[in-house]
Write a structure and sequence with these properties.
Length: about 210
Amino acid sequence: MREDTSRAAEDGTAVTEQPAKRVRADVRRNTDALLTAAAEVFRTSGVDAPVRRITAKAGVGAGTLYRHFPQRSDLIAAVFRHEVDACADAAPALTEQHTPADALGAWLQRFALFLATKRGLSAALHSGDPSYDSLPCYFEQRLVPVLTGLVDTAVQAGEIRSDIGAEDLLTATRNLTLSADEDEGGHTRRMIGLLVDGLRHGAQRPRTGG
């Protein structure tokens, strides 16, 4: 068995605590797996779904879940923040891969997926539990600036009209989004595509010098 690397070696030199780093990496992977699995389960079955369904999908034991999230409300709030972060963090890659208007459309599709998860959380989020009081503010602070940047970039490129803002698009997408079990035919994706096509109408191409 490998000796404890937390103490100094016999020659007096310090020993790097690589196992501790690996443990921290394992903890992060387990936490991410739990939050991803919980989001999928909540999206289809609601927040009262059995814990064993979440842990089985994540590939961890129930003890791991309760160690990180002692209360169901801890898990629900963490899933909400995790999904908001994933949605916000998707923007840079989409911007690199697509034209500004297409990046905006792809991000709105990603936002719709988040909304499908959020609907699975709605019963808990509107329960009056103070554990969720900070979540609306977290949503606004993370997503509104990201969407504002995408809109501004597309407007400046002359690819969409300039008379619509981030709040308008958040509301429009929310109104177009169906829950996962209602959207088998991809209705939400088609409607968001039509929304972005409408944004292209009336776009003003940037003036060129000369």
